[in-house]
Amino acid sequence: MTAPHVWRNVLRIALLLVVASFVLAPLWATVMGGFKTNPEIRTSAFALPDAWNTEFYGAILSDPSFWRYLGNSLLISSAAVVLTLIVGSAAAYVFAQIRFFGANFLFSYLLLGLMFPFATAILPLFIKVRDLGLLDTYWAVILPQTAFGLSLAILLFRTFFAQLPKELFEAAYIDGCGYVRFFIMFTLPLSTPILATVGVFVFVQSWNNFLLPLVVLNSREVFTWPLGMMQYRGEFVTQWNQTLAFVTLSLVPAVVFFLAAQKYIVAGLTGGAVKG
Amino acid sequence: MAEVRLENVTKAFGNLTVIPDLSLTVPDKSFTVLVGPSGCGKSTLLRLIAGLEKPTSGAIRIGGDDVTRAEPSKRGISMVFQSYALYPHMSVARNIDFGLRISNVPKEERERRLNEAARILALEDYLDRKPAELSGGQRQRVAIGRSIVRNPKVFLFDEPLSNLDAALRAQMRVELAELHQSIASTMIYVTHDQVEAMTLADQIVVMNKGRIEQIGTPMDLYDKPASVFVAGFIGSPKMNLMPGKAIGRPDIPTVGIRPEDVEVTEGDGWETKARVVETLGSDTIAHVRVEDVGEMTVRLPGHIRLNDGDRLKLRADPARQHHFDADGRRMEGQTA
């Protein structure tokens, strides 16, 4: 290795370390904050705790409402992922496979959703959800999140499906396999990378969403974890250590989900060549 | 009986007419090769027979049944694609018996046919592998195996060998010929390679711009090409086409002389100069320039040693010349 290479690598690694620290430092502070007392957080946010106080984590883990919030979030996010994958892939399959009158118009219409910020729609969304009588139910969060995830999902799915060789369908068609069966037996199994990518994206979006649940959910029974976190913010005092411990524990499922899907995402980036 | 008949079939994509009014009969149990330059409509014709495209007008019959509007799976055909189109996520065994599973063939029957196909194609050791773990030739055999197990009345091949290297292609050509002998079905084979056409076919259909130029046995086409197009397409190296005055017959618009019908002579003949000499061992192919006539390709016996730039005197066998009229059609009775 020559000297310029070494320097270039050092520079590259240094840059990556800086970028990584932007992500890792707050996470570190969050995890550590759960072990500290409130005054300690204020004075030394990033240091190791003086004493490892586990009672805040313990308090949260033993609090049944924490598990309820986590369960609600898990249910809502999973449902949003499943619905987005089913509806999005089915719609994208039609766009990729069948040419019909108005297909381009319809596709562009769906893509308009990409340019439509969630927050702008919050009032009409609330009214619609209320009119449908869904306020304070899981569906009030699941359905809008699915709807807003669809345009990106369809865009990604369609591109991926269109790359599957056309002859594959023709061969299966001659074997007696119709459109629907091809979708289930070929398109979906061959699309795991893109399914995982969209799945992670929708899951994390849904898991972290604060605004929509805040507006459409009122009773504690259906609260998601970002809403549940608010109970540690009193009128006068915020219990930072409990909040941070809560956040740390709430992050775990999203991280686990990402790690589980990561294998497929990486496979999608490196593999994908169909013809040998 | 699985004769394939196309009756006045036309096919247009929008304003573009790919096949204007074509009729063709492929006899039962024949190996018919559709051959022509790219874009001549041969693949479209095959896809029409397969049912992957619907004709704009006309009728298609397979074994006497009108299948013009029938689904591909109901036509009794199977197709081998250029890119093999193997199912990448399924094992070789699943690839081969997929069609049988779809049509709910009982398990014993399915396994019997799968093993039979694997035996014929020497794939027994590979049944559990995925397509990605196979070589090009093996993939091609899996694609053929997928066709065989369906017991089709008609096999369709769409340039199945063009992704293989030259040595493998020659080997697969022999295997395909053997396959046709062993399972006597009608086979329709599309290629742009006239060597494949000549070696495999009982019947060759030469196509150009969506029309049939000529139908016949390989030697018919070779000995009596019906048009300048066929003359130039069949045979390698290509037939020499030149104006009639080159042989002292200005009344003939075009005369064709195959490279192998030219010999070195001591008597009357063309004075030529070799531009490029290809020494193949068995033959020597010389690209020569003939004064007042132009370029010519000749195939000489291998024992004649030539160097680039050599001068030689050539004579064409008058009994083996092909005469074509101004429209490029063969002039009958003109060849001796």
UniProtKB/TrEMBL annotation, chain A:
Alphabetical list of SUPFAM superfamilies matching this protein: MetI-like
InterPro entries: MetI-like, MetI-like_sf
UniProt KW Cell membrane keyword: yes
Membrane topology: Multi-pass membrane protein
Coiled coil stretches, renumbered: none
Regions crossing the membrane: 74-95, 107-127, 139-161, 182-204, 240-261
GO CC field: plasma membrane
Location of the ABC transmembrane type-1 domain: 70-261
Keywords assigned by UniProt, alphabetized: Cell membrane, Membrane, Transmembrane, Transmembrane helix, Transport
Subcellular location per the Swiss-Prot or TrEMBL entry: Cell membrane
Short name of any one Pfam family annotated for the protein: BPD_transp_1
PROSITE patterns: ABC_TM1
Biological process (GO), any one: transmembrane transport
Family (UniProt): Belongs to the binding-protein-dependent transport system permease family.
Record-linked PANTHER family: ABC TRANSPORTER PERMEASE PROTEIN MG189-RELATED (PTHR43744:SF12), ABC TRANSPORTER PERMEASE PROTEIN MG189-RELATED-RELATED (PTHR43744)
Official protein name in the record: Raffinose/stachyose/melibiose transport system permease protein
Organism: Palleronia salina
From TrEMBL, chain B:
Domain ABC transporter: 4-234
Record-level Gene Ontology MF annotations: ABC-type maltose transporter activity; ATP binding; ATP hydrolysis activity
Residues covered by region (Disordered): 317-336
Keywords from the named record: ATP-binding, Nucleotide-binding, Sugar transport, Transport
GO cellular component: ATP-binding cassette (ABC) transporter complex, substrate-binding subunit-containing; maltose transport complex
Gene3D superfamilies: 2.40.50.100, Nucleic acid-binding proteins, P-loop containing nucleotide triphosphate hydrolases
Source taxon at top rank: Bacteria
Membrane-spanning parts: none
Keyword ATP-binding part of the UniProt annotation: yes
Name the record gives this protein: Multiple sugar transport system ATP-binding protein
Species name: Palleronia salina
Lineage: Bacteria, Pseudomonadati, Pseudomonadota, Alphaproteobacteria, Rhodobacterales
